[in-house]
Amino acid sequence: MTYVVGVTGGIGSGKSAATAEFEKLGITIVDADVVARQVVMPGTPCLQAIAEHFGNQLLTEGGELNRKALRQRVFSNPQEKEWLNKLLHPAIREEIISQLEQADSPYVILSAPLLLENGLEKYCQRVLVIDAPESLQISRTIQRDDSPKKEVEAIMKAQLSRSERLKKANDVLNNDGSLEQLEQQVLQLHQRYLAATVAQEK
């Protein structure tokens, strides 16, 4: 049985920076955002179903999914959004489980912004929350995505609150300092998870 550490955190908390450090230590990362893109690649059953349901105008000239057009179609239409979720969520879940099972590092990280909101923590032995003050989350996201502040705040409202997320955490990484401090914390957690995998095998 693979030892899985779920990694989550609010927008702009620095999940990618943290998982990149684990990856440097040789740990396999299964990223839910990447999987969500993989299940709608050209030639996949999901993309075919989307094109049949919404029409080919949702595809680019190269036959890929036009994400922006899809977002606009489902954004103001709850029924279409529900149809899309029913199609994609099981496919994403199945692919995540498959990738977790194939991982060959001592433990594997499942990185998902909505890990707790979508119930993915049930596949994890530990939940690690990457935490940062909300003001820092906002300034980082504005800088990274060039998004208006209101948009960033709306995304944060749609996610679990910081306090709710911290309540569900087994481990917390405070990502409000330098990259060196982040590396140090990742290294400590890495040792802890390695010890836990050894204990599990006994």
UniProtKB/TrEMBL annotation:
Record GO terms (molecular function): ATP binding; dephospho-CoA kinase activity
One of the GO biological process terms: coenzyme A biosynthetic process
InterPro entries per record: Depp_CoAkinase, P-loop_NTPase
Highest taxon in the source lineage: Bacteria
Keyword Nucleotide-binding: yes
GO cellular component: cytoplasm
Subcellular location: Cytoplasm
Predominant cellular place of this UniProt entry's protein: cytoplasm
Pathway the protein acts in: Cofactor biosynthesis; coenzyme A biosynthesis; CoA from (R)-pantothenate: step 5/5
Keywords: ATP-binding, Coenzyme A biosynthesis, Cytoplasm, Kinase, Nucleotide-binding, Transferase
Known EC number: 2.7.1.24
Reaction it catalyzes: 3'-dephospho-CoA + ATP = ADP + CoA + H(+)
PANTHER family, sorted: BIFUNCTIONAL COENZYME A SYNTHASE-RELATED, DEPHOSPHO-COA KINASE-RELATED
Family membership: Belongs to the CoaE family.
The name this protein goes by in its record: Dephospho-CoA kinase
Organism: Idiomarina abyssalis
